[in-house]
């Protein structure tokens, strides 16, 4: 996991995730590729690709919580090329990196445990 990676909910402690996503145009659509994990989403515009990525992340977190497995621990790392692209792009003076927050939400599980609050932040760079 990257140094900007996830903090995890464990035994009632809050978890929050800071994910980096690189948005690039490929063959007429936009691809939002996570730099920290092998998660990807597509859209017809950069904004739509980011929205689809947010939905995919939320679905992943919810399923992991219901299965009582740590979120993202089972997701492989992406190809190192994406991290290299992020670092090259972030170093450019004209780089546009925006922080997209997923509002905090509470999961109430059928399992007898306390609900957890899950803040999530996505840093996106459109290349």
> How much of the residues is beta strand, in percent?
25-35%
CATH architecture: 2-Layer Sandwich
- CATH top level is Alpha Beta
Listing every helix as H and every strand as E from the N terminus to the C terminus, the arrangement reads: EEEHHEEEE
How large, in whole angstroms, is the Cα Rg? 15 Å
What does this structure look like?
- There is one protein chain.
- The protein has 127 residues and is of the alpha+beta class.
- The chain has one domain (17-126): 2-Layer Sandwich (Double Stranded RNA Binding Domain).
- It has two helices and seven strands.
- Strands 3-2-1-7-4 form a five-stranded mixed β-sheet, sandwiched between helices. A two-stranded antiparallel sheet has the order 5-6.
- A hairpin with a 5-residue loop joins strand 2 and strand 3.
- The model is unreliable at 1-14 (pLDDT under 50).
Reconstruct the topology from this structure.
Layout: E1 17-26, E2 29-34, E3 40-43, H1 46-66, H2 80-91, E4 97-102, E5 106-107, E6 116-117, E7 120-126
Write out key terms for the chains shown.
127 residues; 29% strand; 2 helices; 5-stranded mixed β-sheet; Double Stranded RNA Binding Domain
Report a brief summary of the structure.
26% of the residues lie in helices and 29% in strands. It has 127 residues and is α+β, with helices and mostly antiparallel strands.
């Amino acid at each position: 996991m990257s140094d900007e990676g996830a903090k995890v909910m464990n035994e009632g402690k809050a978890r929050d995730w800071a994910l980096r996503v690189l948005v690039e145009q490929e063959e007429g659509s936009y691809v939002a590729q996570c730099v920290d994990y092998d998660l990807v989403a597509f859209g017809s515009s950069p904004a739509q690709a980011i929205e689809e990525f947010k939905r995919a992340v939320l679905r992943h977190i919810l399923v992991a919580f219901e299965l009582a497995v740590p979120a993202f621990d089972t997701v492989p790392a992406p190809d190192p090329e994406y991290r290299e692209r992020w670092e090259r792009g972030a170093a450019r003076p004209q780089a546009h990196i925006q922080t997209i927050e997923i509002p905090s939400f509470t999961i109430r599980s059928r399992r007898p445990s306390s609900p957890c609050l899950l803040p999530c932040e996505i840093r996106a760079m459109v290349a």
